[in-house]
């Protein structure tokens, strides 16, 4: 499905591939993760992923997903970010993407091109909203992030993880900032939010999601989720139910 719409089951994966043109992927219902060598971006139903030409990437879908794939011609790609990104979906952008991927022929010449230009304008004017989880190159840091990927709820401190990875807490803290551009706490929070989005999309309650992803209580989870995603987990789930069809 290089372009168009279709329903995909929970957990469906698209193996690593690349495109000559740019690609927007939007989950009208559900959520998706896009992974490149630079890390993973997650897009819940209020965001859209952008992958420029030439970037090898893979996708994973969470919940039963109404996925919309939209090709962006090379000539328009320069209007958008030169790297994989996630953007907020305005009401106008949502309707443009839905119309462009419904595969209904237009009676008016050039209508599709004009609508695509509107979509690109909306993306160009909107700030990036990347739920981006970068991945390290340093072997010591990768040993730590691998442990957390295997068990995001793991309550270990950075010092404890460092002992398992053979590196000091100070060294690892420096590497998180220099390689990944964020603190250990921030990186683990975003990792947990990625997993929380998958659980919420698949119908798990807010309280059970908080426990499953390592928060000590639902209120701290709600605060973290709201700060990163821009809405409460309850509202996010409510919008998923409202958008399902």
UniProtKB/TrEMBL annotation:
Organism: Streptomyces spinosisporus
Keywords, in A-Z order: Transcription, Transcription regulation
Stated name of the protein: Helix-turn-helix transcriptional regulator
Keyword Transcription regulation listed: yes
Xref: Pfam families: HTH_18 (PF12833)
Keyword Transcription: yes
UniProt domain HTH araC/xylS-type: residue ranges: 142-239
Highest taxon above the source species: Bacteria
Stored SUPFAM superfamilies: Homeodomain-like, RmlC-like cupins
């Amino acid at each position: 499905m290089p372009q168009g719409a279709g329903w995909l089951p929970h957990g469906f994966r698209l193996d690593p591939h690349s495109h000559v043109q740019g690609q927007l992927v939007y989950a009208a219902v559900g959520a998706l993760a896009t992974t490149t060598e630079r890390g993973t971006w997650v897009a819940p139903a209020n965001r859209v992923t952008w992958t420029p030409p030439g970037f090898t990437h893979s996708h994973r879908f969470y919940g039963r997903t109404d996925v919309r794939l939209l090709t962006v011609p090379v000539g328009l790609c320069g209007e958008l970010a030169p790297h994989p990104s996630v953007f907020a979906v305005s009401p106008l952008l949502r309707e443009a993407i839905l119309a462009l991927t419904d595969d209904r022929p237009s009676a008016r010449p050039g209508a599709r091109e004009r609508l695509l230009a509107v979509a690109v304008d909306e993306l160009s004017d909107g700030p990036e909203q990347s739920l981006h989880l970068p991945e390290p190159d340093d072997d010591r840091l990768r040993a730590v992030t691998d442990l957390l990927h295997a068990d995001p709820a793991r309550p270990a401190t950075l010092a404890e993880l460092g002992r398992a990875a053979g590196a000091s807490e100070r060294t690892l803290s420096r590497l998180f900032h220099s390689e990944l551009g964020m603190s250990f706490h921030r990186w683990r929070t975003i990792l947990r939010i990625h997993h929380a989005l998958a659980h919420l999309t698949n119908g798990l309650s807010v309280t059970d999601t908080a426990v499953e992803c390592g928060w000590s209580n639902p209120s701290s989870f709600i605060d973290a989720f709201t700060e990163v995603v821009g809405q409460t987990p309850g509202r996010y789930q409510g919008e998923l139910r409202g958008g399902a069809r």
